[in-house]
Structures are given as structure tokens and as C-alpha cells.
Amino acid sequence: MIILGYIAAVLMGMVLGVIGGGGSILTVPILVYLMGVTPDVATGYSLLIVGATAAFGAIRYFKEGLVDVKASILFAVPSIIAVYLTRAFLMPAIPETISVQSLTIDKNLGIMVLFAMLMLASAAMMLKKAYSKSAPATQVIENKQPNVGLIVIEGAVVGVVTGILGAGGGFLIIPALVLILGMPMKNAVGASLFIIALKSLLGFIGDLQTGIQLEMPLLPLMLVATFIGMAVSTKVAGKLDGAALQKFFAFFTLVIAVFIMTKELL
């Protein structure tokens, strides 16, 4: 199972590098079901792994001049603040068991069920985009002025989601960059990796402040595996059918989400 986990980490790095998001949503299930990490700790480890991998991948886009730093920071600042506050204060404040009238929910169970719901939403959005026959959104809105207030709200929402579940949120970031800022898709991928790196790594500082224990050699080996996947993606990204890859990953995400819901609830 451990070896399978590292292989899955390589796959996660490849997907993150090719489509700029989505791959990070696999990190928590890999850590929980293959590596035996508890869900609350896995969300913290995920921030470090995803953030470092995204930073590694963003370097290539910087070199190609495909990262709009100003626009990325506009989105990233509220997201970074939200994810840091969530990890440093909100997550430690959530009790291990939550009681609502006669219903009692375990914290780790709640995290995994919410994660599965996020995966279902991610899969639905990716499938909708992959099967859409409409013209690219950038052709319609690229001449519009970006709505700064909407960008700030979207960034904060993504930050809270990242803080609670440890997912990079690329499937939320890329549509926002394309639809609100009018970025071409390739630029949005680079900006997404840059934003994910910033908010995930800074969010992980909140975990360090709460005294998270770093498991060795698990974390370094996971980082190496995801870096290998990201490096491979830089070599093959131009040769892959992006739409086909997105469909495959969406269906794969759907299957994993159903597995999590079934395992945790039944």
C-alpha cells in the first residue's frame, strides 16, 4: 500500500502540472487510505506537499513568461489570509466530536465526507468543461474590466476550502482566472500553480504554529514522488490531449469520491 501511495503521488504531480489543478485533491485520500495518516493531520501535510509541488511547477511558467504576477497576487492575498487563519485558528477550534441535537459527528469523519463532496463538485465541473462545445470564455470577456470585489471574495472562499480540506483549489482558481480576469487557459494554469504554492505553503505555517508533528521519511519521499510527476508533466504536457486527460481525471475523481463516501458512511 505504501508503494502504491508513492506511485499515486507521482500521478498527482503529473496531473497538477498538466492542467494546473485537480491533482492536489488526491493528496489527502492518498495520505489517509494508503499511508495511514489521520484526516486532520493529512490536510496539513497536503498543504506542504501540494504547495511545494505547485511552486516547483510554477517555475517553468515563470521562465516562459506565462505568470501574471499582479493579477495572481490580487487573487492570492485574500486566499492566503483565509487559509492561514483557517489552519491557525479555525481548525484547532473545531472539537473532535460535533453534536447537533441528537446527531454526533466525528471531526475526521466530517473532514472526509466534506472532502468527498468537494471531489464530486470538482469532477462535475471538470466534466462540464471537458464536454462543453461552446467557445472559450476568454473570447467573450477578455475585454471586460475585472471585478476586484468578486476576485477578493472568490480568493477568500478558496482559501477557507484549502484551509479546511488541504486541497489546492485549482479547480476553483482556474475558472475564476479565466472568467473573471479573462486569462488565456495556459496563463491561468501558470497563475493557478503560483497561487496554490503561495497559499498552501503560507497556510502550512499555521500548522507549524499549532505544533503539527512531521512524519519522517514519509513527507520527504512524498515530495520527491510529486516532484518527479511534475517534472514528467513538463516534458509531456504538450504531447497530451488536455481534454481527454481532463475527462479521465474527472471520472477517476468521481470514483474516488464515491469510494470515500461509501467507506466513511457505510
TrEMBL record:
Please, which domain of life does this record's source organism belong to?
Bacteria
**Topological category with respect to the lipid bilayer:** Multi-pass membrane protein
Q: Which UniProt keywords apply?
A: Cell membrane, Membrane, Transmembrane, Transmembrane helix
Its primary localisation, in coarse terms, equals: membrane
Pfam families per record: TauE
Q: Where located? A: Cell membrane; Membrane
Query: What are the TM regions of this chain, as residue ranges?
Result: 7-35, 41-59, 71-89, 109-127, 148-181, 187-206, 218-238, 244-262
Q: Note the PANTHER family from the entry.
A: MEMBRANE TRANSPORTER PROTEIN MJ0441-RELATED (PTHR43701), MEMBRANE TRANSPORTER PROTEIN YJNA-RELATED (PTHR43701:SF2)
In the record, the note on similarity to other proteins reads:
Belongs to the 4-toluene sulfonate uptake permease (TSUP) (TC 2.A.102) family.
Name the chain's protein: Probable membrane transporter protein
> What is the native source organism of this protein?
Alteromonas gracilis
